[in-house]
Amino acid sequence: MIVYLLRRLAVTAVILLVICAATFAVFYLMPADPAQGACGKACSPERLAEIRTTLGLDHPPLVQFRDYLLGLVAGRTYGTGAQAVSCHLPCLGFSFQTDQPVWQLLTARLPVSASIACGAAVLWLLAGVSAGVVSALRRGSLWDRAAMTAALGGASLPVYFTALVLQYLLVVELRVLPYPRVVPLAEDPAGWLQSMVMPWLTLAMLYAGVYARITRGELLESLGHNYVRTARAKGLPEVTVVRRHALRPALMPIVTIFGMDLGALLGGALITESVFGLPGVGKLAADAIAGADQPVILGVTLFAAAFVVLANLLVDLVYAVLDPRVRAVG
After folding, report:
1. CA–CA separation, 91 vs 97, rounded Å?
2. Which residues contact 41 (CB under 8 A, 6 or more apart)?
3. Does 304 have pLDDT greater than 90?
4. Which domains does the chain have, with CATH numbers?
5. Percentage of the chain surpassing pLDDT 90?
6. Contacts made by residues 35-43, CB under 8 angstroms, sequence distance 24+
7. Which residue has the higher pLDDT, 197 or 266?
């Protein structure tokens, strides 16, 4: 298991390095003037020249990439003398429009995105997998048809439509929830829960349908395998047959998509945060795009990509626990 873990960590490090190289090339080598992107739309020529020197754009590309990587692992200082700007590790860049390190901006928004993503993930995982299992065990029943129809409908509705409908019903008409707002969990748990219910439901309705249909299909396939029929022939209880022999392999694809979906949402649920006005990482990215704040866009891109890669690493480790054969071939 340790050898497998080390191997996966090495692959993850290589993937992260490739992502860093790709994002650096897109944001620093391809634009006509990266300093213009860092400074924003309204930037004086003097300020533009200052930022160009501060970013070290007069150095060769390999030197710039080296400094870029060193900043991620050891921090860096932009500029020299009295105008030097410190960027502590992990230095994802410096926003000259807000005069703040990008990492500081991201960590300030991360609790909101994490609250949305983790709470919604619990809801859609419980609802989707449970509905899929029941539908597979009651194949062809009224429950099966109703659940799969609801799953297809939930997965088909756009996020912004579901968010606006929930907001109208629960806030305007029924008045059972307040408008979503930022409430620290430690200060007001009840207020935090109320503010998160609608974002959770919005994302859960989208993802639960997909998980229900995948779980149903995979479980039906597992129930048709010879080893399941053998377990039943031995007289094992149906609950044991389903739980130990059929459900376990059926969960492998669920683990894969769950890790990727959760990792992507931790990098920011842009539409959900924008509709509800919640200042998460996704909303930060939207504001940075609107304001042409290139360092923030680059930082959010790396931040989200790192979450997806790390989620994929966790998926590989869970695979190794669920199926020992993975360790032998991985």
Report:
1. 17
2. 291, 292
3. no
4. 13-102 (no CATH), 105-329 (1.10.3720.10)
5. 14
6. 37/292, 37/294, 38/96, 38/293, 38/294, 38/295, 39/96, 39/97, 40/96, 40/97, 40/291, 40/292, 40/293, 41/291, 41/292
7. 197
Return the ∠ at Cα 15 (arms to 12 and 21), rounded to 5°. Answer: 145
DSSP code for 177: S
What the block records as the tokens of 76 is 């860096």
For 174, list phi and psi in degrees, rounded to 5: -80, -25
Select the more confidently predicted residue: 284 or 86: 284
Cα separation, 217 vs 139, whole angstroms: 10
For 18, counting Cβ atoms within 10 Å of its Cβ (0-12 exposed, 13-18 middle, 19+ buried), the class is exposed
Q: Is the confidence at residue 270, as pLDDT, over 90?
A: no
Q: Name the residue type at position 259.
A: G
| Host H or E run for residue 86 | strand 85-87
Compute the residue count for the chain. Answer: 330
| Helical H segments across the chain, by residue range | 2-24, 34-39, 45-54, 61-74, 102-137, 142-156, 159-167, 189-223, 226-233, 238-240, 247-266, 270-276, 281-290, 294-322, 325-329
